[in-house]
Amino acid sequence: MRSSCALATFAALMVLSGACSDLSTPADLDREQILAVRATPRVLLPGGSVVLDTLVSGPNGPLVGIESYQLSIDVPGVSVATTPSGQTLLSCVDGLVVEQAIELDLSIELPDGQVLLAQKSVAVDNRDVDNPHIGALLVNGAATEPGQVVRESLGDIAIAVESESATSVAWYTSIGEIRYYRSAETTIELAEEDVGEGWVAVVVRDDEGGVSWQSFQLEAGL
Fold it and tell me: Which residues pair with 50 in a beta bridge?
């Protein structure tokens, strides 16, 4: 598989138990990696809670592992707990005043025993704000649903993400080559060596720590 965006330093960080930050560098999905960590809503209201979740992916698509969050520095009145349904909640007591964002350390153990690490910052504020919304993910102009299987012939295919509130975009792929991986509208070049199945993911962010994502399966044929 070919790509113009794989970075050796990033690869070294992500192998086995390599660490990453919440803002991952666009790269080939040629190994398991954490692409993003999300808090929903993105701001922790005093007396409230946010749900924490992650996008973990690799050559065969999204992955599920055993997630473990902990506060990087203990903050009185702030706690992390897992609900009976498996959700991870970051909560704080009413009236809490925190001048800086809450810092979290995350580890994810994958089924093969590999451990991935990441960090996440969550602001404590009185504003009720959400993550950027993905209006549509388009492949050759057609709307694509999360996890959908998209079949395309070899050559260039156009991909685009629509999000009015996002200020940055990052594309990831395990198949073909993305031309402009920081652009909302770009292309994936599929050559004969790419015949088969792969995954494509897009992560959108705003300027205040909000993040959303979507992925789909791409099948390239002659």
Answer: 90
- Which of 104, 124, 144 is the C-terminal boundary of a domain? 124
For residue 58, the enclosing domain spans 8-124
The list of the chain residues with pLDDT below 50 reads 1-24
Q: What is the CATH number of the domain that holds 185?
A: 2.60.40.10
| Digit-coded pLDDT (tens) for 77-128 | 999 999 999 899 999 999 887 778 999 999 999 999 999 999 999 999 888 8
Q: How far is CA 101 from CA 24, 34, 111, 169, 180, in A?
A: 19, 21, 32, 23, 32
Core vs surface per residue 104-131: b (16+ CB within 10 A) or e: bebbbeeeeebebbbebebbbeeeeeeb
